[in-house]
Amino acid sequence: MDPRTRPTSAAEALGLADQPGESRDYLAAMRSGETWNEFCEGADMLASEFAGDDLERGEGFRNLLGYLSQALTRTLYACTPDAPAFVRGMDDIVKVGLDNPDGINSTSAQVSERFVYRLFGTAGKERYVEFVQSGAKGTLSNHYLDEFHIGPDGAFEIMLSAEPRPGNWIPLQPGVKSLLVRQIQYDWENEPLSDVRIERPGASGVPYCLRTPDPEEVGRELASLGRTLVAGANYWLDYTRAFAREGPNIFPKDQPLAMSGYSAVRAAPKGMFQLAADESLLLEFTPPKEGFWSVAVGDIWFRSIDPSHRHSSLNGFTAKVDSDGLCRVVIAHADPGVANWLDTAGHPRGHMIFRFVRTESRPEAKIQVIPHAEIAARLPPDTARVTPQERAKIIAGRARAYARRYARPMTSRWRAD
User: Fold this and answer.
1) Cβ-count burial 156-194 (b if 16+ within 10 Å, e if not)
2) What is the pLDDT of residues 282-295, one digit of tens each?
3) What is the pTM for the complete model shown?
4) Which domains are assigned to the chain?
């Protein structure tokens, strides 16, 4: 069979096939229950130093279930590179890797440089749409929708292939395994999201996820799920330890991005916060005027603290800047009545992250731990304040926006047209 048209299994597409020199009877392992037992061993992650009390332990189990849900979704809904479709891996419940509260970050399709694809749809009004190619060792390329020609009605078409094509074209990189789409909003309530789809012209037949399964392939997938669960959990734990070693309430300098290393267009400085019940953290910085920037907090397991019903994130549209040009953000357990508050939701320790995308500057923040009772006195008189009623209205708007954001199909296979 021509290797360019040979169907690809989900295990192969996700890089889960046997490694060179490795061999296993997956059918026998499935029959015996061996692969199921391996799959369940991922709970060992809760023996880590991050399970410090019952709250963190409970969050840890939620985190583990999120890894499980994401791995199951990637496997059960898999549309392989010969006939791909986008599948969303996260939402407001399933959150992995300190997810970005400002948009949908986990819609991906399995692709291969062996094929030609058509990326098409209708452009929305979000801050940016990013197409990210990834392989076994991380990010291979980044492209943005606004780099391409878009019709007056918002319609667009971009071809993806290893060989050059006329018009809108994205070169497929050697070793590419997936195409991720990030759709990021500034004004959550007034920036409609783009409609983005993918197809391989000429592809036909039943999608891989709907075919009658081959029993041996099911055994292979079950074994790979166990490895994926443990590897994913350990990856983010190790990643977190890298900057947790620097200590709490600082942003260590010169951090690479997860998987992709350093990037000319993206940066995500991260640190740990640790606050007593009567303490707050004050961040002061000069915000970029272009591109996208945000600041957010997450729990100890590197999951965002619910951004839909908690005021746990700010971006360049929602954050207020003082008259001296500085943006001041307060991380605290209780609402201090300032507009730029990030809610810890009662977590005594967790994560804080800046994101800078296509900005000319990546400012460092001055950080101070301050008694919560002294916050008002330490801020300029013109710092924007909010009343409890105004805060409730803001959070209600966030909840509406989040509900609307995810009120769309989790896979591009589910369409009425």
Assistant:
1) bebbbbeeeeeebebbbbeebbbbbbbbbbbebeebebb
2) 999 999 999 999 99
3) 0.87
4) 10-235 (no CATH), 247-405 (2.60.120.1600)
